[in-house]
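In the current project phase, the collection of sequences with tokenised folds has grown. A sample record is quoted in full directly below:
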Amino acid sequence: MKMINVKSIFWAILGLFIYVSTAQAAERVVATVNGVPVLESQVKKNMGKKGQYQVALDKVIDDILVQQAIQNSGIKVNYAQVDQIIEGIAAQNGLTYGQLLDALDYQGISYNAYRQQIANQILMGEIRNQAIGQSIDVTREQVEALSKQLLNQAKQAGTEKKISAPQYEVRHILLKLNPLLNDAQAKAQLTQIRADIIAGKMSFADAALHYSKDYLSGANGGSLGFAFPEAYVGAFQKAILTTKKGVISAPFKTEFGWHILEVTNTREGDKTIDVYRQKAYEQLVNQQVKDVEKDWVKALRKNAEIRYLK
């Protein structure tokens, strides 16, 4: 799940409650959305400094359509998560939990109503994720092209920052599970292989060549070359980071099977392009999310009964 900006939720929710209280004073209905009235005060609240009435009206209508989609989705909110977010909101605003309650009370907002509004925010995120998540498709080629573009722009602007991080040279021996080799047997076999290497009965390279089921690295003494730890799956990455250089790890399991490994060397590697790849990926995903979300709201509008009243 993505990080939630709890500070923005705090002020957005407060603004929403202030708006609701003032909206009650103005009862003029300017539109209906599937029978739900849109008040003129709602539109004015969303007009901002530019005073674009139609833009503000469309936004209110879109918000109502999304809220209706949430109600029709049947998704249930996890209130333990809601309570954690409220605690985070208090901390982000430099408040204790009690001070947050006092702030709500000062604004005339009941805690239960505030809690429900945050629950609605979470539900809105969930239904949007369901509606648009499967439509996001970022290719490796797109990421590579944009990352190089961003890096070149940074170089031309003189804002490029070289970023380095440790790379680890690793060798390993892999045993894959099969009908004749279960977890306990694989672990025991690697424990014996490790003991034989430590005792000098065979070298790591010979053991990898003879036993490893990663045949490509096994033919090269088990060597995987230099790489950043995050290039590997979680358990393998953890073993790299927790095993001292020159020490053979205890047997551990990954999705590929059972391993032992040895870190044979370390060096500083250039991670600059990796950072720009991440930036490129995030930009591409965010743009696609915006585009797909617009299409989703358009579809909600197409299937809705919207009436504009003069």
